[in-house]
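User: Sequence recovery, please. Input:
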């Protein structure tokens, strides 16, 4: 199994700061949002397998209902950044 890395930014710091490496991530979300996230992760995995995920994908681009939320989930192609586990 490949190692994976998690990064994040503090609220209000959108592109203004370097991402912080995270040890743990927590989702406080409804069952509906968790299922939509699961579909997003599955979609990204399929795109990675097919080598169609350029460098990253945003949940808000995949699921337009998320555009109203205050947080963003981004999946990064590890090969695009030279990060292999």
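Assistant: Recovered sequence (85 residues):
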């Amino acid at each position: 199994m490949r190692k994976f890395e998690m990064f994040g930014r503090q609220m209000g710091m959108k592109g203004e700061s370097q991402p912080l490496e995270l040890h743990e991530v927590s989702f406080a979300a409804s069952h509906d949002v968790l299922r939509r996230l699961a579909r997003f992760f599955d979609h990204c995995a399929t795109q990675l397998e097919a080598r169609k995920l350029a460098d990253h994908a945003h949940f808000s681009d995949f699921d337009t209902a998320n555009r109203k939320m205050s947080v963003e989930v981004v999946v990064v192609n590890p090969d695009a950044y030279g990060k292999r586990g």
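The first strand starts at residue 6 and ends at 8.
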